[in-house]
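Quick start: what a row looks like.
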Amino acid sequence: MSEINFQELQEKVVATIKSCYDPEIPVDIWELGLIYELKFDREANLVVLMTLTSPMCPAAGSLPGEVEAKLKNVPGLKSVKIELVWDPPWDKDMMSEIAKLELGFL
């Protein structure tokens, strides 16, 4: 069995997540700060802790499923599970500098 390169796998995961957008905001969910944690185990199973801009977000029904579906196509991942969390609550300070520039907060 070949050795898993977790750094390379994480880079592929992040690139895939960056292809997912909140439908109301023209910035990807990685730069928005909606991904709180990526947890890999030794077998390359992935658990993604993510949030939404608010519990009433119109994308609540679709965005986690879109992220999961896209991540399941990443070569090298054995399984993917999305956990939607609300603590800590998301706010605009969690956005990257790129997102803040894009949305006019800087």
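That is the whole record. Residues 44 and 77 are 5 Å apart (CA to CA). The longest strand covers residues 35-40.
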